[in-house]
């Protein structure tokens, strides 16, 4: 018997292998067709009188990486009762596999995530290759495991371990899985099949009692009422604190486990399905699933672009400050040797120190060995000259944000590299077309805008100039991906994508300060909305001088809506040389905490500075604060999409999430508009029209509202 995605292979002695091998795909996922094939395969096994044992395997590098989310979006929009039944129908397949009268063993050769790991839990024994990883990452999509994960895992590894695995949604190594009892055997990958068959033979012979191994999964948790209360109540407090108020799935998973603790498997699965259906229909799940699909779309686009990329064996960075050192660290730690050039020896030492500090942190956390750190540091070569630049494939310019200086440095480096070498500028605001004017080969030049701190921020904006070639874009995208970053290709304009959108948000903040509102109240409202930090705190982290310069560029580029009528809060602090965290004082004063990190505290010296720019005292509600901050940001995102700065809504929203920490559970600015309703958002913006052009919807957005159009297609609900 042979299926399209599941091969049924007779292995002799009554052993049947179910091998997952989804045609045309690099990984196995559980889509409707695969699950239907699995149902048919298990049904056939149930009727096989000669069956003595079942082995589950994968023909791909990974086992099964989870459900095919794109297929299940429609199910998420079903009424709760129908979604529950849909979930339970999959559980019936897994339960039928678990209830076979013969032992079952799964050979986990690579990633087994979500539903892929849940089917492993339904088997009697789990054998895992040393390099494989398992986990239940569903909470990252705003849901929790719905195919038996909340039922079987705590009965196998205990409540505390199961809560930790599910609430964090992390992947776990074979060693970690073995330690808690999530798997039974760990072997080198080359011995996986042999070990799985040996284990199955021992179970068939009766040496291993598969019914005894299966029994705990079918019964209630072996905890009395007091033990249950102690285990779950302490877990709930910790999980709620870590997840925060905007992410309900981790706590819901704990509550589901607690509610089903005294039940046998089938009743417990019904409890799980009920909670799963409720979460799957929530706005948070819709946004987080949307982000997941956006991320997948970005990756597909980047992979397509990479096909035209030139090889990258040697990189270079110009400028050895904090940013240059961060880029050097990122390149070296990912195995790409990099030259780090500056004109001053102290600057080189600063860059090396920055890279060494980051590598030491990785070593302290156990993410690399001393030898790995030594290799990475050895891959960074400091230099005061262009002597070795003839062998460089890509150069990232990261000198001071000054057009004149950048043009001079770019012209110098172009003379030192090969004619086909790619040159990219890490500018955050200066026009790529303007900088390209200094080059003989502008087709080899583009922007490569990293976000600070480089090692933490996932986004890289790859900026296309008017003369930039597809090869330059493709090679820069490929380099960004090799660095572990998420590149988004954008077209040239003041501020590119993220900063262009961010500064209208700061414009909203300026209007609130001008209205006499307290900065701490503004920060509190925005942080409660979900931002990692409010606008005043964010400006301090960015640097008041950096923001002042960038705002000047934005005003020159978009004077009709970004010019302020008078001095702003940023102007007031800049003139007082309160430059933010870097100077110890900005909108807040900064003290060093016990861990050596800056801690913000209120500074009474700020109040008179802000009063000097408070020209129109107003009484505004928290809702007004939120709207005055968010409307300009959302409208500028719309304009970027309409102007072709970015090609898709997915790229615009991901740029905001990855670049400035837009609350992920809200999905991005365009999804935020859609969640409200485009017509409703336009009406809201019109209520604040008196605050100027930043609050005026575009004609195209008004047309979308009238016609009922959307930014995202029907496949992303």
Outline the structure in words:
In the N-terminal section; belongs to the enoyl-CoA hydratase/isomerase family. In the central section; belongs to the 3-hydroxyacyl-CoA dehydrogenase family. Residues 315-493 form the 3-hydroxyacyl-CoA dehydrogenase NAD binding domain. Pathway: Lipid metabolism; fatty acid beta-oxidation. It catalyses: a (3S)-3-hydroxyacyl-CoA + NAD(+) = a 3-oxoacyl-CoA + NADH + H(+). It comes from Stutzerimonas tarimensis. This protein is of the alpha/beta class. It folds into three domains: 6-281, 2-enoyl-CoA Hydratase, Chain A, domain 1 (Alpha-Beta Complex); 312-492, Rossmann fold, CATH 3.40.50.720; 499-707, N-(1-d-carboxylethyl)-l-norvaline Dehydrogenase, domain 2. The chain is 51% helix and 12% strand. It contains 31 helices and 19 strands. The strands form four sheets. Strands 12-11-10-13-14-15-16-17 form an eight-stranded mixed beta sheet, with helices on both faces. The chain has a six-stranded mixed beta sheet with strand order 1-2-3-4-6-9, sandwiched between helices. A three-stranded mixed beta sheet has the order 5-7-8. α6 (159-168) runs parallel beside α10. The chain is globular, with a radius of gyration of 28 Å. 50% of the residues are buried.
Quick recap:
It contains 31 helices and 19 strands. With about 725 residues, the protein is α/β, with parallel strands linked by helices.
Please state the CA-atom Rg, rounded to the nearest Å: 28 Å
CATH architecture of the largest domain: Alpha-Beta Complex
Strand order of the largest sheet: 12-11-10-13-14-15-16-17
Find the CATH topology of the largest domain: 2-enoyl-CoA Hydratase, Chain A, domain 1
Q: What's the CATH class label of the largest domain?
A: Alpha Beta
The proportion of strand residues reads: 5-15%
- Percent of residues in helices: 40-55%
